[in-house]
Write the structure tokens for this entry.
Amino acid sequence: MNFRPYEPADLSRVIEVYSTSIRCLAAAYYTADQIAAWAPTKPDVAPWQQRLDSLHTIVAEDNGVLAGFASYEKNGHLDLLFTHPEFARRGVATQLYLKIESVLRTAGIPEIFTEASLAARPFFEHLRFHLDAEELVECRGARLRRFRMHKQISKA
Ligand SMILES: CC(C)(COP(=O)(O)OP(=O)(O)OC[C@H]1O[C@@H](n2cnc3c(N)ncnc32)[C@H](O)[C@@H]1OP(=O)(O)O)[C@@H](O)C(=O)NCCC(=O)NCCS
């Protein structure tokens, strides 16, 4: 598995990993309407481009196939974390996360925080994230349950 910074040429593959991951790995946790709202069949590329431009993103690649990606901000916010279903439970998200944790710890950031989906909560609990609050977020007309979680990574 090769880990490298996101490049603009990865855009369509990143959107594909996001969509497939939600439709497959998150389907057991949300209704069909919620999944359809979260991962629309015709994703809007321009907002994706803008969002990725404003984030730091690492991709995991296996023989040219995009296995997953993770996006964060320099304040410690882990914004996106998605593994392609074909690579699920093989440590891809863990490796992506640990790379980000290492960068942020070196930068002196005291904690990483995220908004975990129902599908991702066990993953973050496995990494010893703490639960701060449950919330309902509006997404293209649907309301999705998610969890604000954080992990202290270095002393403030
Ligand atoms: C959450 C997600 C990123 C995890 O990716 P992954 O590459 O499969 O995770 P890893 O293989 O690194 O998992 C590490 C550990 O986390 C835990 N874990 C991961 N997924 C889990 C699940 N679905 N149920 C229970 N525990 C899980 C396990 O302890 C796992 O270790 P194990 O496989 O040895 O038991 C992936 O399932 C995903 O993309 N889900 C759908 C989209 C989503 O909700 N993304 C997050 C948005 S906040």
Observations:
- The chain has a mean pLDDT of 97.
- The longest helix spans residues 11-25.
- The CA atoms of residues 137 and 144 lie 5 Å apart.
- The pocket of coenzyme A is lined by residues 21-22, 25-26, 68, 81-83, 88-94, 116-117, 119-120, 122-123, 126 (CB under 6 Å).
